[in-house]
Structures are given as C-alpha cells and as structure tokens.
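Troubleshooting: if your tokenizer reports a length mismatch, compare your output against this known-good record of 78 residues.
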Amino acid sequence: MRLLLGIILGGALTIGGAYIYDSNHAGVASSDTTVTAARPMVNWDVVGVKWHDLSEGAKQQWDRVTANVQPDRATRAN
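Known-good structure output:
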C-alpha cells in the first residue's frame, strides 16, 4: 500500500512541479524590452486533449460494461 501511495505521490509531485515551472517561466524579458518565449517543459494544450480523450474513452467503456447489467438484478441487491 505504501508503494502504491509513493508512486501516486511521486507522479503528482512531478506533474505539479512541471506545471509550476511552466507557469512561472512563460516568458523571459530581454534587455531590449522584447519578450522572448521560453520553451515550456510540457505542452499543456496537448496534455489537455489527451486527458479528455482518455476520460471520454474510459467513460464509453464503462457505459458499455454497465449496459450489460440487468436492471432488475441491480435493484434486488439494494
């Protein structure tokens, strides 16, 4: 259980650290008053699209699995 918690916490800290770094280093001002775009560690737009696709796919699979459950059997259990 501790191992699983450590893996989850490590992943959350890694993603959180990358997000904080990227949000604090969005642009760096140079001496001639122009802003040069710093390259982010993570392209958060791509991450958002991938996360949306993953969650929609999981929802569709869950709906497909639960569609096979008989409604009368589910009400008898309660």
